[in-house]
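User: Fold this; tokens only.

Assistant: Input:
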Amino acid sequence: MCNFVEQNRKLFDELDNLIDSLEVADESALIFVLKEAQGIFGYLPKEVQLHIADKLGVSPSKVYGVVSFYSYFSTNPIGEYKISVCLGTVCFVKGSDKILSEFEKQLGIKAGQTSKDLLFSLDGLRCVGACGLAPVVVVNGKVYGQFKLDQVGELLDYYKSLENTTV
């Protein structure tokens, strides 16, 4: 644990400054602090959860309970680009399961995982609510409707190219 803390000292200092600036730093601030911590670290590993528990004077199990209850929080690193494939009935009938499998194949990860370069996270969703556009893929909130299997590589290449143009 110490190694993670030392490697991320500046991030922990930023989190400490945030917590120290709160008018009330106790259990009532837990969700706010977790949200801000996820923004700072990109996810909430065990070391960050333990640190927050200590700083707010709450049990680690209380912190973990909140983190594991709300789907907003992640205990694993999240990629720069979060790809979600709708697996609702209409999308599934139109081949979204094959699209998800192709993303898994091309990224070398399974749904629920993040690529080693932290560029992509992949998930399946139960329903996006855009059945008229089925099958649907969502990347960081941008909806791609009537998505075709042969578009998987093109979409990945597009987002990879954005990384190459940012400095």
